[in-house]
Specification:
alpha+beta; six-stranded antiparallel barrel; three-stranded antiparallel beta sheet; 11 helices; binds adenosine-5'-diphosphate
């Protein structure tokens, strides 16, 4: 008997998060493969709220660059041995290509034209979410997924919020997100706009795609790189980032530098909006076709899968070594007549 939840046959584990396990599953009604999130029974209040936020935010979103939430509900989880328990589950569109993060981290930096291809998809997805009243608030390469054709999809909406604020003032106040991607106004605990902070994070992601490392650690005055940008000394920022790069000062194109500088400005009112960004000269540059992306990314995919597999094997080997060491220590304890052994004898 195969494992299943309702009409979904579970195939294998895709990953796990703080509050869930994500399984590859077959929807027996449509014949399509999906990602099925099974929520943990022992979730705390905070995790429960994040899940509720995610479900509510994604419910009405349907766009080629946003992971689709197919359905959610409660069903019996039937294990292979027939045991059953009721679980809460969320069915998501499958991101068969995995996370953008793994591609940048493990298969090398992207040329500017490839970064442009994906940055445009980020903008398209964001523009759609914002137009539908949702701000993501936790954009980072780990939350950008790729489908089987290497098309980018925004995912993980656990920190999403209403783009117009809870009181319709246009401003949000809750301090959340991932520190390295937060806009300076969030660090400063000021009310902020969802559109603007999502675009700030998008600029950091764009930089990472091209450089393979972030532009700064955090957008605060303590960070020497961000301090340069905030003080209009972008020349120093770029000089430092071009050190040790092939082609030195010519590593980043001038238009790339301009778009990044503009989007990472300290004052949110000076940063370009999505329509402004679309009109920027850098955005008008060449872009690969879908076929070229398929070709390049299927090669990258092999490297990514091998790295992930190697890491898994290394972790397993380390675990085995730890177990073996523990076993040796335990044997050693018995043979040397240690405290524990003596205690037994006296008892
Ligand atoms: P959490 O929000 O609790 O951290 P995630 O949503 O990040 O959980 O999911 C955990 C992991 O499951 C991800 O890192 C990813 O590997 C995998 N995963 C999540 N959603 C999908 C999806 N739609 N398609 C494929 N894999 C997914």
């Amino acid at each position: 008997m195969s494992k299943r939840i309702g009409r979904f046959n579970l195939i294998r584990t895709l990953g796990s998060g703080m509050s869930c396990k994500v399984k590859l599953a077959l929807d027996t009604k449509t014949g399509k493969k999906v990602a099925l999130k099974i929520l943990k029974d022992n979730m705390g209040q905070r995790d429960r709220e994040l899940v509720e936020t995610e479900v509510a935010a994604m419910k009405n979103l349907k766009h080629p660059n946003v992971i689709e939430q197919v359905e959610c509900g409660q069903e019996m989880y039937i294990k292979a041995d027939g045991r059953q328990r009721k679980v809460f589950y969320i069915v998501l569109e499958l991101a068969a290509g995995g996370e953008l993060f793994d591609f940048v981290a493990n298969s090398g930096r992207f040329k500017e034209n490839v970064a442009r291809y994906y940055f445009k998809q980020i903008l398209d997805g964001l523009d759609y979410c914002h137009s539908n009243g949702v701000t993501h608030r936790d954009l980072k390469p780990e939350n950008l997924f790729l489908d089987g054709n290497y098309t980018l999809k925004l995912g993980d909406f656990g920190f999403a919020g209403p783009v117009e604020g809870r009181d319709d003032s246009g401003y949000l106040r809750t301090i959340l997100g991932t520190k390295n991607y937060m806009a300076p106004e969030i660090h400063l605990k000021q009310p902020y706009q969802g559109r603007t902070v999502d675009l700030f994070a998008a600029a950091i992601i764009l930089f990472i795609m091209v450089a393979q490392h972030p532009p700064f650690t955090s957008a605060t005055p303590n960070d020497p790189f961000y301090r340069c940008l905030a003080a209009n000394r972008a020349d120093i920022f770029w000089k430092n980032h071009c050190q040790n790069k092939e082609n030195g000062d010519a590593f980043f194109s001038e238009e790339f530098k301009q778009i990044i500088q503009g989007m990472l400005q300290l004052d949110p009112s000076h940063r370009p909006s999505i329509p402004d960004i679309r009109e920027h000269p850098w955005m008008k540059g060449p872009m690969p076709t879908k076929e070229q992306i398929l070709q390049e990314f299927s090669k990258r995919d092999l490297i990514v899968k091998k790295t992930i597999e190697d890491e898994r094997e290394q972790k397993l080997a380390e675990k085995m070594k730890r177990v073996e060491n523990q076993r040796k220590t335990m044997r050693g304890v018995g043979q040397s007549g240690s405290e524990e052994t003596k205690f037994d004898e006296s008892g």
